[in-house]
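User: Okay, second chain of the day. Same drill as before: sequence in, structure tokens out.
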Amino acid sequence: MKKKLCSLLFAGIALSVISCNNNSLAEETATTAVKDSSTISVQYPYTLPEDNNWDMNTDPKNTQVVLAVLKGFESGDTTAIARNIGDSMELNGDGYKFKGTREEFMPVIAQEMQRLKNAKVKMHDWETVVNKKKTEEWVTVWYTQYWETPQGKTDSLAIVNDAKVKDGKVVKWNEYIRHFPAK
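Assistant: Same drill. Structure tokens below.
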């Protein structure tokens, strides 16, 4: 009985030593020391060419612009979309890329909207950030989009959009989607 107790005690000590060593291995792989806003030194395993130190942007104007574009898409209102995008537009989506002028973009987006009937957006969250230099402003929105195809089939996607806003207009729209599994 004493041998079993001693064996369990030594096994527990060995596991404790091993688990402590695993934590130190994680610390050894960190190569970049960065000070966060509370001046705590944090070690990251990657380096950035330049740390932008993004801040939350509490001004709602950029969020309003991005949501107006999304609402225009949902309701099929190309005028609302055109009013809120820049003279040039870049769109990066699931297997799709567009870069051109607003005039070139509008027929492309109108064609996409015709494929979707009864589009609905269920918004989950949004946030607006700006870099410390005030040279880039982005709005991220998380939502589920529902629609009906022209053939009457309903479908949905979980979507995250990152929209770059410059001078009060959307100039870049990155779309990341998750397809729901077939039922």
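The longest strand covers residues 117-130.

User: Thanks, on to the next one.
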